[in-house]
Amino acid sequence: MSLTPEQQRAAYARSSVAITAGAGTGKTFTMAERYLYHLQEDGLSPLQVVAVTFTEKAATELRSRIRKLARERGIDRTLLAELEAAPISTFHSLAARICREHAEAAGVPADFRILDDLEGQLWLDEQRLDILDTLPDEIYEKLPYRLLREVLPQLLDDPITVREAFRHGSEGWNDIANQLRDRAFDELLQSPIWQESTEVLQHYSGKMGDKMEMQRQTAANAIALIDSGDRSIEHLQAIASVDFRKRGSKKNWQPGHLELVTEQFKKLRDLVNESFKAELVTLQLGELDDRLAEVLPALKAAFEYAWETLTRIKRQVRVLTFADLEVFALEALKCEAVRHNYQQRFKAFLVDEFQDTNPVQAQLLDALTQTATLTIVGDAKQSIYGFRRADARVFDRFRQTIVQACGDDVSLDLCFRTHHALIDRVNQIFQPLLNDLHQTLVAHRQEAPHNDPHLQAFALTAPKGTLKVDRRRAEAKYIADWVTQLVADKTLVHDKRSDTLRPIDYGDIAILARTWKPLQVYADVLESSGIPIALAGGDSLLDTREAKDALAVLRFLADSDDDLALVAVLRSPFFAVSDRALLQIILEAEPERRDRQVTWWDRIQAIDWMQVEDAPAIDPIAVLRQLQHRSSIDPPSRVLQWLDRLTGYTAVLANLPSANRREADWRGFRELVRRIEQDRSSLYGVVRRIQRLVDEDVKVPRLPLDASNAVSLMTVHKSKGLEWPVVVVADLNYNSSTSSQTVYFDPELGVSLKFDDDFEVSGKPVLHVVLERLDRKQEEAETLRLLYVALTRARDRLMLTASQESGGYFDRLSPGLAAASIEIGRWAFPEQFYCGDLEPPAIAETTPKLLLDSISTDVKNLPFEALSDYAACPKRFVFRYLQGHPGTDATIRMQHRLDRLIRKAIAYRFRDKAVLRAFDGELDGKSIASVMEYLKQFDRSEAFASLHDMGFHGEHLVTMDFDRIQWHGSIVLLGENGILDVRTCLELSPKFYRFELAAIARKMDRSNIFLVDINNLQLYHWNLKDFQPIDRDFKPIVKNIRSNHFEATPSREQCQRCVYFEICLNRIED
Description:
The protein is an alpha/beta fold. The chain folds into 5 domains: 5-112 and 321-412, P-loop containing nucleotide triphosphate hydrolases (Rossmann fold); 116-317, no CATH class; 455-537 and 708-828, Rossmann fold (3-Layer(aba) Sandwich), CATH 3.40.50.300; 545-689, PCRA, domain 4 (Orthogonal Bundle); 861-1057, Lambda Exonuclease, Chain A (Alpha-Beta Complex). Helix content is 51%, strand content 13%. It has 45 helices and 27 strands. It is globular and about 115 Å long. The two termini are 61 Å apart.
């Protein structure tokens, strides 16, 4: 693929450049070319070029593109080696590097640990509650506990902006009120309704004494006074107080004039009332503003106390959150020596998705790029992360700075994603909506894969009073029928890889919505229609049935007197005890005693289960007693595995609708428990923390599903950066919440609180009204950008649906649809539509084999080394790849990190400590010294001399698809026909490593296989021809994994060196 003229101009710019890259215009390809330009033309090392992306996935993709291009261009081997260590990462990773390299200047411990999002949220929630208990009494004299508990987390999430906001006091509030009130009056007077009303009320009049004429005169006088400059609020109130019960008499008016004046009066009154509702024309300082000025010092003191306390605790326990990284990196860059270090070290910066940059990140870049060449790539139309404090204005500011410094400003508008007919319609829709932001995209692909229509919009017409949930299900059914028809008609779509046309498949279709809630409804309806679906996530893992089932078990095990938890467990799929059986237990159990309350655990232990009607197939007493025993010796995550084994829970899930989604949620909850138990190993501690997550309504993300050949369902935010041949943008009646926040802050205006019943006065101060209006305007602008992102995900066909004819996003989009001459199709609410429980899929003619035992995850992606682990012991495979357990030996885990670094050093023949640190910036000096020592042994030992003679040709990434599993790994290329793996510690007997190495050798068509054991100065060599054919060597292992054959095969030799020895029940003791 060659660069377009505009891409060339961007990639080969001699100085800094701002690139506006429209949807599908090849920005990643352009960035990769720009990166190579810095290497080849500017003579920079990859270690001098910083590339910053929005996600780790994007960073990996960019590095892969650069690596591929570099090899095609014959880049020097040294540069290829440095490329592997080059700073191509996210903002957080860049900030972490600065904090680690200059910990003292940043004010953080040198050996800090980064808490991931969920872990950080859990930790912060606990610390904040403790801090609230220790706040000085004088703060609580001014501010109630409930308010501080609500607003402090919001303030602490953005400390830099909040500190800037707190610098502003009450001095400028009166000017702000006057300016905004005048602006609101100007907008009111310039309104077409006001202009039209002025003309009508001045030119049409009735006879003196007529009731409507008297009101007309009052209103006309008020309008005249306002137009003359008297903007007293009483004049607007005179207009708003028109009483339409005083209608006047037609005989006192010229024909039609009374109706005309009355109609115009209604429009004018509504306009004025709307302005009153917006609270802008009435803005003036009062008691609420005095109260805000009084409490702001206390709020600032509470914030500073909380921030300083949190910072002190973080230093003590050596942890930082992702948000902290940027804050402390900025602190480090305040030091001139630190800034100078990076300005000397980094000569060029490339920043992707710049429209999603927040003000703190902008300050980081300001400090780092003063003397560097800067390339920013973004699209203000696709700025949709305001809730993460992203500010589209940052992109525009940096772009103007680059232009003023004689840099280039390039716009990429050739779209490689969407064909001409569809992109032309999208252009027409958004030209009147985005105004100055609009960029007309030109299609590279002119021919459409099928005939019109390429863009359709539909709205449901339903009888008055139809419930929202029923309208949403009717919308889902309409989408399901439409998708079914597309596939049945074998509608042609463009295949991006082959650049040919082919019939559509389910995996070519995506359904997008603003939130997760409607997507679950669509998923249920589509699946009941026989359509395979992949729901990419959901509101929260803790809201799923599987998480609630598992939590109920853990709650009971932590406290057997928890009746609610035990009954939930009995009724769940673990035992499926019927309500009839529970009633029988109540009736036959021992009556309540005076000396103590009889619990449900007492009741079910006293019952003869053989006599219970609808008794479960599995004895709950035996299972729960066994779990109680296991919970005293095993961690909670392991207890959940015992629960699955004893009840066959995952087998039950596998036989239910949405089985993949359910199994993923079960697996996700187990993983959540495993993460929590690392800090709180006791069962009680784990339950307490998860219950707090539930009580605080913390949103725990659900595991994603592999879409494979299924319709993808996800939010618009989740779809960013993705594309499909066919996209349905649904639930267009969604409307954002208009509720007012308790706290607002702005670095240029200040901080404001909304007062409620906890104070003597309630309401919004002037500053609160101003900041709320600013927030609403930004949200309205982001809504249009969100719609733009949604509609530009489609390559070939686009469908828009709404469950009613007006409201929400549909109203915002309607002017654009009208401009594009897109007629809104209507479909009537089905008369016979059943809105109760959905029917299950049709029963097959032959009954499939049911799963009656617990099942493992449906593995889609594995490293090649999983073959060796399975061959050594299937139980080891389960611990490592299905349960994600890291093992109990931290020394061996560290050795794995060192092995990866040693392999790279050998592959690219570098021995410099600075380069080693660039590859793994978190390794301490002792670990780097160990790596250097191992490399010295490798270089000097006679055992490995033959390898040096063959020559090392870099590290090669290997991927292979086999039996629906993608296998991946890396290997050192040796000589012309060999591969090399290097280990400092062989966890397995050497014979087991042959499985993974033979698979890689086959994939790369290389015959000689070498394995180095540096620690023992051993070299192992095999020839591929000595191995069994793939069907007899590789395939049986994969088949066993697919068939869930995971019985342990312990041996004394392997058990003694296994990292799971301490937790494995099948181990052989020495």
